[in-house]
Amino acid sequence: DARVTQTPRHKVTEMGQEVTMRCQPILGHNTVFWYRQTMMQGLELLAYFRNRAPLDDSGMPKDRFSAEMPDATLATLKIQPSEPRDSAVYFCASGWAAGGGRSSYNEQFFGPGTRLTVL
Amino acid sequence: KQEVTQIPAALSVPEGENLVLNCSFTDSAIYNLQWFRQDPGKGLTSLLLIQSSQREQTSGRLNASLDKSSGRSTLYIAASQPGDSATYLCAVRGYNQGGKLIFGQGTELSVKP
Questions:
Q1: Which chain A residue has its CA at the smallest distance from B37's CA?
Q2: Are B89 and A43 an interchain contact pair (Cβ–Cβ within 8 Å)?
Q3: Contact A108/B106, CB-based, under 8 Å?
Q4: Among partner residues A56, A108, A111, which is closest to B98 by beta-carbon distance?
């Protein structure tokens, strides 16, 4: 059945190391979202793409985070260098949005998340 | 700025009770509102999506209502079961936020057998 997949599911790394998280959106979806969830902040949107183009990455620390969609089946989120405060669960979600000035957005479907621990 | 608030933050009920979870939002210019369920250590599962033109949506024992003008939504769970225990998150997608989902902090539900 169709679902969003994320790898790795868990990642433990040391401060200063590069971390790459991957997401495969549901086939046919044209929007991809990256979220971060922590106990303190809840769910925060980091970045999102529509038709592979980045639309908003204002939630991301630009100096260390980067998000890309090399193709329609893969989205990546990189942190370089990682810091302990980046420890969180990172979720990817995908959905479908129609075009136009006032677009219509359908449901977002979430992946299982990547639990990142930076020591 | 869109703010989403969920009340209560936590709720514990005995099995079989009907219950209501509340969600309020400050900016009524929304495309839609989505209710999710999150089990501990897991991702989010979409439960119901209500478009801004709709008043309610139903799925099994779940019923979600939307009153856009007052900025409120409720999730009604009938005949609660221990398997319903999870955190329930409300999220709104607003015109003024570029279609982004803005989440509430969630209601942690515990249904006791």
A1: A110
A2: yes
A3: no
A4: A56
Element housing A96 (H / E): strand A88-97
- The reported pLDDT for the residue numbered B84 is 97
Instruction: Please write the tens of the pLDDT for every residue from A31-81.
Output: 999 999 998 888 999 998 989 998 888 888 889 999 999 999 999 999 999
Sheet (strand B4-7) strand order: B4-7, B19-25, B72-77, B62-67, B56-59
Instruction: Provide DSSP, B38-91.
Output: E-TTS-EEEEEEEETT-SEEEETTEEEEEETTTTEEEEEE-S--GGG-EEEEEE
Both tokens of B113, joined, read 């057998």
Reply yes or no on whether the pLDDT at B108 is more than 80: yes
Answer whether B42 sits within 8 Å of A109, measured CB to CB.
no
Residue found under tokens 């401060």: A15
State both tokens at B92.
Answer: 């709104």
Report whether pLDDT(B62) > 70: yes
Mode of pairing for the β-strands spanning B107-112 and B10-14: parallel
Residue pair A29/A96 in contact by the 8 Å Cβ criterion: yes
Q: Could you read off the pLDDT of B10-37 as tens digits, one per residue? A: 999 999 999 999 999 999 999 899 999 9
